[in-house]
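User: quick one - fold this with pyridoxal-5'-phosphate bound?
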Amino acid sequence: MKLTIFGKTLQRELHLVEFNARACAQVLFGGMGATRTESPYGEKTTMTKVPLLDLTQQYLAFKDALLPELEAMYASQQFILGPKVEALEARLASYCRSSYACGVTSGSDALLVALMAEKVGVGDEVITTAYSFFATAGAICRVGATPVFVDIDPVTFNIDPAGIESKITSHTKAIIPVHLYGQCADMEAIMAVAKKHNLIVIEDACQAIGAECTLGRAGSIGDYGCLSFFPSKNLGCFGDGGMVLCQDDARDKTLHILRNHGMAPQYHHHLIGSNFRIDALQAQVLLAKLPHLDNWTAARQRNAADYRRLLGDCEGLVLPAEAPSTTRHVYNQYIVRVKGGKRDYVWEGLKSRGIGCAVYYPIPLHLQECFASLGYKAGDFPESERAAAETLAIPIYPELTMEQKEAVAAALRELTA
Ligand SMILES: Cc1ncc(COP(=O)(O)O)c(C=O)c1O
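Assistant: Sure. Structure tokens for the protein plus pyridoxal-5'-phosphate:
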């Protein structure tokens, strides 16, 4: 079966476009609070602009702790691996209640290295959700394996475990559940089916650092857990970075060797790895931000509670819900469903009112052009397709003011009326 395999460079460019679009939105709508504007009818009105994400305010919280550390690093000129990376690995393993952590170049590469560590390759199948960021399926293809998609649960947007077992064949090696938007997938059901069929579980926890369910913290439940430190994540660095968590000493050693060209000892390669090393600079940034993460998560949860209070009775919307197995939703994104086929109208209306919003994701994975050779077609995964057509992400970042949340809610009420 022929697959179009996206190269690393192209994937990063695409991702960059996504982030630059967010950054532009930030510039466009970056001004906080109320702005006087001219209405189409000539009178002056007061409009509260709300960016989808504003990282500039967050920077002020840790800047004073970070800058002297960066100066010391510049003086030492120690940029590759070393004590900062080791410290971050120890701190994040502990934060995620995991035995081991291995810092890598990105969340995409975290998924890739975990698959490489399990020698997943050509002829193997990996079961995953049809509704996620591209990197989840991209990593499977980059090792030469075939992604096998399963539809989502319409309430949580996460893989529907009831759809997994019928997709298991003698070629299936692993399951990659994604904890989308900051809420864990149904790990009890997924771990049970994985155990029954002796499959590896690689949690894509890129959007869910610190999330919890009945089985524990995101990334610490399966055989591997993958984190992303892309700037828009709840713990973002100043560029790209990622982490692979695992619970097994031998697996951790393999991950560390693979991320450094499969080299151990120096210039001896018994495995083929690559340069998947996280930068020491990014490790330092993350060490400075980590002490704030729980406060930022609490603020996101308060924002979600405020939206529920402000929009709970809005008939044109379905607000996000927490599954019974969810014990900590970290709200990397706040996703509403817009009823009555009005999503694109509401999306445009919010943008024209200076309210940042986005669609994550407009095309489910099984309908992506690069997977055409897998033979999926429209209608195969109705819930993923419905989510792609109905959902909208609205601002949820920790520093949102009450005035901004009220402005978002008022605009949504008006547009869905
Ligand atoms: C669910 C999911 N998986 C994987 C990734 C890839 O992470 P990164 O951007 O760090 O490569 C992301 C990032 O957006 C993601 O949201």
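One thing worth noting: Residues 52 and 395 are 4 Å apart (CA to CA).
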